[in-house]
Amino acid sequence: MTHRDVVLRSVLIVAGILACATQTRSTADVAAGVPAAPGRYEAVSQLGDTLRALPLSAETRTRYEAQLASARAAYERSPSNPDSIIWLARRLAYLGRIRESIDVYSNGIRLHPANPWFYRHRGHRYITLRRFDDAIRDLERAAEVVKGKPDEIEPDGQPNARNIPIGTLHSNIDYHLALAYYLKGNYECALPIYRRELTSAGNDDRRVSIAYWLYMSLRRMGRHPEAEQVVAPITRDLTVIENETYLRLLLMFKGALPADSVLPAAADGQMSVTDATAAYGVGNWHLVNGRRDEAMQVFRRILAAGQWGAFGYIAAEAEVARAARPPGEGDKPSASSLPAGGGRCR
């Protein structure tokens, strides 16, 4: 049995264990703060590893726990209110209690099946669990519900330095939908969403985050001249509040910054969520420029740091898993990633 066969077999075995072992907790238990069962894990990685507690600092965990207590109190006062349900679920997710968060969103959908916010947020958390097809279904549903309706500012769960939200309901639906396609290696489906979002971006934070993923999608598709057109208008003087890492990566892509000025170099190997984002961008830059060994070294460094909820980590994990597959089973669309019934992407 080859190494690739061993990796693939382990993924299937552990995924089967997860399917059998998963027990949905009642929303009442979650809201009441009933502890999860000992030994519980949140997800199985694309490499077959069980993923448990998020690596949060003591200070961050204390702050998140206080925010969860406040959200739980609001939920107990008004358990059918959509905002109460959403904030309870969001606060659970920040603590890495992803499956509980999804249970709460699912309860919200049962109560409010036409509310797009539940599909938008549950789709995001399905990405965290590596359930990309479920994420796509939820986010497609959210997009259908909001089509033709006015957009809304999305309040931040952890406000930025200026306390100015940079995202909207519509933009976050599209951002996460395109990301789910990207993580599946389905760049053809991600591409039109990224193009539309780049055109409609209302601030530089959104502009650089979308340009980053659009550039990488085009490079992975071999459409290099189009990718260069994406980064051409990117300059150092863009006004970004929280997406400085994306801006620096785009400047690196166009040759305005060296890679070692972007890639974090912590002596202890630890990474923040932002570090994982930067590292994935550098690794993917190596990959699309033919430096596969260097790319894999960066991707494995990200995985060793353990920040498993970060999109950069999930993307690096996808690259390592993809590299273990037999030739021809890597970057291509799969039928399961397409919207039910339509056979085409949005």
Features:
mainly alpha; two-stranded antiparallel sheet
Describe it for me?
The chain is mainly α and 346 residues long. It has a domain at 258-322. The protein is 60% helix and 1% strand. It is built from 15 helices and 2 strands. It has helices spanning 3-21, 27-32, 58-77, 82-94, 98-111, 116-128, 132-146, 169-183, 187-200, 204-220, 224-231, 244-253, 273-288, 292-305, 311-323, and strands at residues 43-44, 50-51. The protein has a two-stranded antiparallel ribbon with strand order 1-2. A hairpin with a 5-residue loop joins strand 1 and strand 2. The longest helix is centred in the N-terminal third of the chain and has 20 residues, at 58-77. The chain is globular. The model is unreliable at 1-24 and 334-343 (pLDDT under 50).
Q: Oligomeric status of the shown chains?
A: single chain
Q: State the distance separating the first and last CA atoms.
A: 40 Å
- Biggest sheet details: 2 strands, antiparallel
Biggest sheet: strand arrangement: 1-2
In short:
With 346 residues, the chain is mostly helical.
Topology diagram in text:
Layout: H1 3-21, H2 27-32, E1 43-44, E2 50-51, H3 58-77, H4 82-94, H5 98-111, H6 116-128, H7 132-146, H8 169-183, H9 187-200, H10 204-220, H11 224-231, H12 244-253, H13 273-288, H14 292-305, H15 311-323
Antiparallel strand pairs: 1-2
